[in-house]
Design a protein that fits this description.
The protein is of the alpha+beta class. It is built from 3 helices and 10 strands.
């Protein structure tokens, strides 16, 4: 049983890239689908498709490679179910001098660190990816 489904999702994406797999498949939820769509929008995933019916729904995320290296090199889960981490607008910083990305859950939905600063809204930092 997985207690932190977001951590499981991002680790599956990272491990699929390290194993040179074309795609990663993980159980579906609305939050994970929104996160995967945001990662697709910013260029970390090629395609995101929802598969299955009723209880057996899953998300297939096709990975992007630069040559033979995966675009997703590493991930870091920031906020966990046992320890939530929230940032105000002025606390949001860039990840790896702009070479990475932070995903926030805000009142406006799932946003990247740059989008959250532009919208002047804070929220829960879910994870960092680079």
């Amino acid at each position: 049983m997985v207690t932190d489904s977001i951590a499981d999702m991002i680790i599956q994406l990272k491990n699929a890239g390290l194993a040179k797999r074309p795609a990663a498949i993980f159980p579906a939820s609305e939050l994970k689908l929104a996160i995967a769509e945001k990662l697709k929008q910013v260029g970390y995933l090629k395609t995101v498709t929802k598969r299955g019916k009723k209880v057996k729904k899953s998300i297939e995320a096709e990975l992007i490679y630069k040559g033979t290296e995966p675009k997703i090199i590493d991930v870091k889960r920031m906020s966990r179910p046992s320890q939530r981490v929230y940032h105000r607008v002025h606390q949001i910083r860039s990840v790896r001098q702009g070479h990475g990305l932070a995903i926030y859950s805000t009142p406006l939905g799932i946003l990247t660190d740059k989008e959250a600063r532009e919208a002047k809204v804070g929220g829960e930092i879910l994870f960092q990816i680079w």
